[in-house]
Design the sequence.
């Protein structure tokens, strides 16, 4: 298992291959639907994402004596950001996109071109992820977007993910989709 | 002198507890099904890593009393008709609002017109409440179903030439397997399917979701549906989609099929996809 620590260097990211497990450490930022739309509309980004990680996540957070605490923080479905991500990767130089379910060919191509990867976190594994998030360092857009859509800055330790789309044009999702399609055609052949 | 709490207050307390337990603890049968799946997957595979993470997550959530999944989902209550006058929408709403204030439920309800968050998770239409007849006397059942899985639910109108599905159980099989293949891992596989054969479009989804409340180990009392459930489960698990769609032997944990009468003109097949975080629980009053 490869350990990655922020800032994520392009060479380290390019060395990753689809299918391997990684442990992510250090700073990551969340961003989902409102965040991406804000970016696409030309809105200002609160932090420099270069060599950083963007996590598709809408956490459950509570305020514990002034400090934020993550109660649940698993990934949300990434496909909804397909329209925005290639441009986000190209513009910001982000290295890791973390989410669930994978993204489309254009995002895969952006990963190849700009040296980024897509990591699959385990969907729904909110408690495991909450334990991996050691600290909430900051939050942006809380008032505008609400807690589930805000851009949270997390410090994580040993946040385990699977490299699902690498920077060499390989997507586990595309492979599984093609193989399952072939198998479905065997199971339900067209009659007539 | 200590003031006695009103009976409605105690009822709200029990429903708040039901919500917290449903959110933080998977039913035993669902956890067992995941453990069984883990044993089938190859050592060192991403399928195994995902299932191990899932099981660790289930244990942590139960120990900490925190949500199994951050998407605390659409709350759907199935309440016995006989309890209609006690377990009112106001009582259920009060319980949901309290569970939300305690952080057991995410602020997860959006006004569809304005886009604003309804922080209490309570408004007309939320939570969803079905009063059901003759299905378990005097029980309140809660299903918490995340949006990622809900997006993968589908309804087919048979005949459907695109999948060569006619108006019979073979057509149902074709529709359901197609839905599973198209869902890939997006609904947080391994999933559980609730299926309704027939009904109208609305009752089809209601019945399909009702099926999701069944114990995963039970056997359908209708032998034809029991056979179909077993066959679809076996076949779906040869699709190779695997946990979270990364490949593997476990694509589904269970298939549960019910039926509703239909009109001659319609033959709907409704597939409700539930993620592995199958949060369901019942209490008897």
Sequence:
């Amino acid at each position: 298992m490869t350990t990655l620590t922020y800032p994520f260097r392009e060479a380290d990211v390019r060395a990753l291959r689809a299918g391997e497990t990684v442990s992510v450490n250090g700073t990551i930022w969340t961003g989902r639907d409102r965040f991406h739309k804000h970016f696409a509309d030309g809105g200002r980004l609160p932090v420099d994402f270069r060599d950083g990680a963007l996590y598709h996540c809408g956490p459950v957070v509570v305020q514990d004596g002034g400090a934020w605490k993550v109660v649940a923080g698993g990934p949300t479905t990434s496909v909804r950001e397909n329209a925005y991500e290639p441009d986000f990767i190209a513009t910001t130089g982000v290295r890791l996109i973390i989410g669930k379910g994978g993204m489309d060919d254009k995002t895969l191509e952006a990963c190849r071109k700009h040296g980024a990867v897509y990591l699959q976190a385990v969907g729904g594994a909110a408690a495991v992820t909450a334990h991996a998030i050691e600290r909430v360092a900051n939050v942006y857009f809380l008032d505008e977007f609400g807690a589930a859509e805000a851009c949270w800055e997390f410090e994580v330790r040993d946040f385990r993910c699977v490299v699902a789309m690498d920077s060499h044009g390989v997507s586990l999702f595309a492979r599984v989709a093609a193989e399952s399609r072939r198998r479905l055609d065997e199971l339900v052949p067209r009659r007539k | 002198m200590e003031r006695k709490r009103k009976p409605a207050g105690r009822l709200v307390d029990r429903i708040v507890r039901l919500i917290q337990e449903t959110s933080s603890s998977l039913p035993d049968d669902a956890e067992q099904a995941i453990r069984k799946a883990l044993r089938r997957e190859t050592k060192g595979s991403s399928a195994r890593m995902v299932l191990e993470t899932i099981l660790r997550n289930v244990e942590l959530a139960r120990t900490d009393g925190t949500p199994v999944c951050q998407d605390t989902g659409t709350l759907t209550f199935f309440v016995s008709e006989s309890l209609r006058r006690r377990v009112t929408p106001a009582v259920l709403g009060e319980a949901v609002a309290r569970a939300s204030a305690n952080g057991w439920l995410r602020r997860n309800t959006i006004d569809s017109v304005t886009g604003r968050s309804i922080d209490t998770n309570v408004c007309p239409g939320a939570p969803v409440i079905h009063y059901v007849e003759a299905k378990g006397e005097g029980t309140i059942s809660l299903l918490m179903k995340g949006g990622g899985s809900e997006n993968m639910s589908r309804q087919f109108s048979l005949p459907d030439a695109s999948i060569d599905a006619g108006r019979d159980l073979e057509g149902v099989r074709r529709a359901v397997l197609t839905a599973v293949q198209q869902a890939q891992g997006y609904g947080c596989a391994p999933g559980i399917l609730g299926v309704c054969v027939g009904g109208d479009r609305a009752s089809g989804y209601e019945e399909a979701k009702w099926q999701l409340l069944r114990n995963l180990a039970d056997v359908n009392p209708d032998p034809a549906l029991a056979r179909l459930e077993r066959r679809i489960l076996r076949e779906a698990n040869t699709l190779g989609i695997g946990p979270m769609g990364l490949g593997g032997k476990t694509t589904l944990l269970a298939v549960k099929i019910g039926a509703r009468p239909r009109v001659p003109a319609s033959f709907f097949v409704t597939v409700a996809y539930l993620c592995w975080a199958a949060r369901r629980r019942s209490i008897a009053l």
User: Anything to note?
Assistant: Chain B touches chain A through 50 residues (CB under 8 Å). The mean pLDDT of chain B is 94.
